[in-house]
Amino acid sequence: MAKRPKTDPTPEEQVRVLRGAVKLAPEELRLPDLLPMFAPASFFEKGNWLGPSELLKIPGLGLTWSIAQPKQTMLYLSHSAAKHWEDSGIDWRQESMQNLDRITRPKFCTGGFAREGGKKDDWYALAFMHDDGYGPSRLLFWEELGEIFPAGYLIAIPEMSLGIALSRDATREERAEIEELVGSCYKDGTRPLIPGLHDSALLVPR
């Protein structure tokens, strides 16, 4: 028997899931579903965000955490949920990175830009646009990306669902190609985040 084609959830289904999720008590939330995610710094600059957050050194960029929910939805981590885990002796930030590592193992990136005439896996850029919606969060894997790009690398997050890493030794033509892609995604994306390429060393709290 043929399998039914996978279909995206309807907005009505997603709203129904979120209505149920916001009613969950902190102890009902699943720690294995906690993941870090980037968001506009404007979300956090007024200091009234509903949960833990960090402003990063890259202009316009912030970091927060969310709990993945069914039907391609998520629930932002609240201060009360974070306190619940902290009171239980749980380092939820570390747990979120372990969760991200677990879901990333099957596929580190979703695309690569290889040099013409180069050897296999000679990438000058990698793209992160995973179906789980946390593609850009993979840019937090500094050690792994440092091994792939020993000359160092720049990062871009033109929209909420897309992250890009570009080797510092990319040629002018290679860099121009990525800059054009980043500019297009930021301009035409459904959820634009920050424009341009940025030093990966600035992907840390201010």
Structure explained in plain terms:
With 206 residues, the protein is an alpha+beta fold. The protein has two domains: 94 residues, no CATH class; 92 residues, no CATH class. 28% of the residues lie in helices and 23% in strands. The chain has five helices and nine strands. A five-stranded antiparallel sheet has the order 5-6-8-7-9, with helices on both faces. Strands 1, 2, 3 and 4 form a four-stranded antiparallel sheet that branches. Strand 3 and strand 4 form a beta hairpin. The chain starts with 10 loop residues before the first helix and ends in a 7-residue tail after the last strand. The N terminus is likely disordered.
- Sheet having the most strands: 5 strands, antiparallel
Number of domains: 2
Write down the secondary-structure element order: HEEEEHHEEHEEHE
Overall pLDDT confidence: 90
Please give the structural blueprint.
Blueprint: H1 11-21, E1 34-40, E2 53-55, E3 61-69, E4 73-76, H2 79-87, H3 92-104, E5 111-114, E6 123-128, H4 142-148, E7 153-159, E8 162-167, H5 172-188, E9 198-199
Antiparallel strand pairs: 1-3, 2-3, 3-4, 5-6, 6-8, 7-8, 7-9
